[in-house]
Amino acid sequence: MLTLTDNAATIVKDLAGRSTGSTEGGLRIATLENDTSNFEVTMAPTAELYDQVVENNGAHVFLEKNAADSLADKQLDANRDDDGAVRFSISPRV
């Protein structure tokens, strides 16, 4: 199952609170319809039916089935640059 770094959890929780206005919202990762090697990342108020839910320190990540399969052995990290823009990265889980 995908894991989150502490940085990712903090940033996802902050983004979800701002965009959904709820502590139940989170980051949703889905594969593109005809390309399962690329991902679409959006903020969502709740998980969709059949999404796998990853939780860490109050942060929620909702994974569409194909994304969950592709990211099962990965770790999600996130950082903010000097302008406040968020950059997500995925790496092999250590």
Automatic annotation (TrEMBL):
> What is the name listed in the Swiss-Prot or TrEMBL entry for this protein?
Fe-S cluster assembly iron-binding protein IscA
Species, as recorded = Conyzicola lurida
UniProt xrefs under SUPFAM superfamilies? HesB-like domain
Per its UniProt entry, which superkingdom is the organism in?
Answer: Bacteria
